[in-house]
C-alpha cells in the first residue's frame, strides 16, 4: 500500500502541507519588531508558539465533538495564552445549543469560581483569533452555586431548567468556559467532569473530512496567536504601547460582569538599572496582578514572584500596596520579577467585589529604589525569599495537581 491507494490521500496530504506552511509562517512572527531582539525574549516567543502547537489539535480535534464534550485545560504552568493570569485556572469545553450537559464534581475552595456559556463568534476586525472572540451569554458564580454539605455539586447546561444550578443555552452557544481564581496558596481547585446527558453510543472515529477541517482550524490557530499578540490589545484592548509604564483606568462592561471580573493592562519597558514602582490603595475584593511577556503570556509563576493577590502582598502603614518591578531582587517583599525581559505587560484584574483600584507608577533608578519607598516597606532575606518560592511552588502544584 502506498500514497494514492486511498481516495482521501491527496486531500489529507494537501491539508497537512498547508498546515506546515502556516506553522512556518507563525514561526517567522517570533522575530517581529514588537519582540525585543534578545535571546531571552526570542526564545520566549518561540516557546509561546511551541506550547500552543501542543494544544492545537486538542482544541481542533480531540475535544471538538460537542456530542462528546471534554474539559480542556486551556492554560497552565507550561501553556500560556490570551493574557492568562498566574492565579487563575482556565478550562473550556465545546458545546452546542441543542444538547443538554451535566457538570459535576467538587467545588473546592478557590475564592473565585465562574462558569460562562459563550455565544457566537463573528470573525472580522476587532475579533481575536480562535478560540476567542465569543460573547458571554450566561454565567453562574461560586456564591450562586448550590453546593452540598460534602462540597459536591451538579450543574446542568442547556435543555429545560433544572433547579437553581442551571445555565441556559441558545442556538449560538458554542463553548463552556470555567475560571477559578485563587488568593491563598492553600486553596483547593474544583475537580469537575462534563458529560452529555443522553449519550447512548460510542464516540465515532474521525473521518477524513473531520481531520481535514481540524488541520485547517489548527493552522489558523497557530498563525492567529502569533499575529494577533501583542498587536490586538494595542489596537483594540486599550493598551498604550506609545506610553509605556502607565496603567489605564479600569472600566467595567456588561461582558465583564458575566465574566465576573474587570481587567486593565500596562505595557512596560525597563532598562537594566531601572525599577518600576506600581502602587494603589489596599481595597476590598479579590485583585490580581500578573507579569507577562510580549505575547501576553504569563511569566513563570510556578517558581518566580511574578503574580500577587491580597493575601500575598504587604500593605504599607499608609494603606498603600507598592509592588516593585526590577530585573534583580531588591530585597523588598513585593518584588515583581521580570525574568530578565526588557519589555512586557502587567495585567491587573479585579473580581468586582468593591471598586477596582486606580494604579499609579513611578520609574526610578535601581540604586535609588529604597529611598523612594516608605521606611516601613516590608523586606525579606535570601532565606525568606527561598521559603516564599517553596510556598509558591507547592501552591501552584496544588491547583494543577502536578
Strand order of the largest sheet: 1-2-8-4-5
Total count of domains: 2
Number of helices, where a helix is a run of at least 4 consecutive DSSP H or I residues: 7
Q: Globular, elongated, flat, extended or rod-shaped: what is the shape? A: globular
**Series of H and E elements:** HHEEEEEEEEEHHHEEEEEEEEHH
* Main sheet characteristics: 5 strands, antiparallel
Low-confidence segments? none
Residue fraction in strands = 25-35%
Provide the helix percentage: 10-25%
Give the overall pLDDT as a whole number. Answer: 95
Distance between the termini: 43 Å
Strand tally is 17
Class of secondary structure makeup: alpha+beta
- C-alpha Rg (nearest Å): 22 Å
What is the structure about, briefly put?
By secondary structure, the protein is an alpha+beta fold. 25% of the residues lie in helices and 25% in strands. It contains 7 helices and 17 strands.
Explain what you see.
The chain starts with 8 loop residues before the first helix and ends with a helix. It has helices spanning about 10-30, 40-60, 210-230, 230-235, 255-260, 370, 380-400; strands at about 70-75, 90-95, 100-105, 110-120, 135-140, 150-155, 165, 175-180, 190-195, 260-270, 275-280, 285-290, 305-310, 320-325, 335, 345-350, 360-365. Helices cover about 25% and strands about 25% of the residues. The radius of gyration is 22 Å and the shape is globular. The relative contact order is 0.16. It is built from 7 helices and 17 strands. The model has no long low-confidence stretch (mean pLDDT about 95). It has a 5-stranded antiparallel sheet with strand order 1-2-8-4-5. Strands 7-6-3-9 form a 4-stranded mixed sheet, with no helix packed on it. By secondary structure, the protein is α+β, with helices and mostly antiparallel strands. It comes from Mycobacterium cookii. This is DUF1214 domain-containing protein.
Amino acid at each position: 500500500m502506498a500514497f494514492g491507494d486511498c481516495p482521501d490521500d491527496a486531500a489529507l496530504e494537501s491539508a497537512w502541507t498547508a498546515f506546515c506552511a502556516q506553522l512556518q509562517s507563525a514561526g517567522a512572527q517570533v522575530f517581529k519588531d514588537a519582540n525585543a531582539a534578545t535571546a531571552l525574549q526570542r526564545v520566549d516567543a518561540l516557546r509561546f508558539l511551541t506550547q500552543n502547537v501542543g494544544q492545537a489539535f486538542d482544541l481542533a480535534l480531540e475535544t471538538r465533538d460537542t456530542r462528546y464534550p471534554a474539559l480542556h485545560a486551556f492554560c497552565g504552568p507550561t501553556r500560556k495564552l490570551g493574557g492568562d493570569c498566574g492565579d487563575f485556572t482556565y478550562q473550556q469545553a465545546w458545546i452546542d445549543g441543542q444538547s443538554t450537559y451535566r457538570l459535576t464534581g467538587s467545588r473546592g475552595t478557590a475564592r473565585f469560581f465562574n462558569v460562562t456559556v459563550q455565544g457566537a463568534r463573528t470573525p472580522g476586525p476587532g475579533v481575536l483569533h480562535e478560540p476567542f472572540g465569543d460573547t458571554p451569554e450566561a454565567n453562574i458564580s461560586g456564591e450562586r452555586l448550590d453546593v452540598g454539605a460534602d462540597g459536591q455539586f451538579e450543574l446542568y447546561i442547556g435543555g429545560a431548567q433544572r433547579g437553581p444550578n442551571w445555565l441556559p443555552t441558545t442556538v449560538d452557544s458554542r463553548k463552556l468556559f470555567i475560571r477559578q481564581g485563587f488568593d491563598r496558596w492553600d486553596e483547593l481547585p474544583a475537580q469537575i467532569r462534563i458529560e452529555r446527558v443522553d449519550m447512548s453510543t460510542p464516540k465515532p472515529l474521525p473521518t477524513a473530512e473531520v481531520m481535514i477541517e481540524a488541520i485547517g482550524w489548527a493552522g489558523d490557530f497557530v498563525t492567529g496567536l502569533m499575529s494577533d499578540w501583542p498587536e490586538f490589545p494595542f489596537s483594540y484592548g486599550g493598551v498604550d504601547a506609545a506610553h509605556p509604564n502607565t496603567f489605564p483606568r479600569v472600566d467595567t462592561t456588561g461582558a465583564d460582569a458575566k465574566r465576573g471580573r474587570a481587567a486593565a493592562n500596562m505595557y512596560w519597558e525597563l532598562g537594566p538599572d531601572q525599577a518600576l514602582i506600581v502602587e494603589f490603595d489596599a481595597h476590598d475584593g479579590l485583585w490580581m496582578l500578573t507579569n507577562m511577556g510580549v505575547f501576553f503570556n504569563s511569566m513563570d509563576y510556578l517558581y518566580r514572584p511574578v503574580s500577587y493577590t491580597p493575601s500575598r502582598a504587604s500593605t504599607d502603614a499608609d494603606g498603600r500596596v507598592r509592588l516593585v518591578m526590577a530585573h534583580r531582587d531588591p530585597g523588598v517583599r513585593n518584588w515583581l520579577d521580570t525574568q530578565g525581559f526588557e519589555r512586557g505587560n502587567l495585567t491587573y484584574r479585579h473580581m468586582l467585589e468593591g471598586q477596582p483600584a486606580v494604579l499609579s507608577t513611578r520609574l526610578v533608578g535601581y540604586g535609588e529604589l529604597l529611598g523612594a519607598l516608605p521606611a516601613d516597606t516590608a523586606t525579606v532575606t535570601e532565606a525568606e525569599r527561598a521559603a516564599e518560592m517553596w510556598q509558591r511552588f507547592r501552591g501552584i502544584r496544588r491547583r494543577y495537581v502536578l
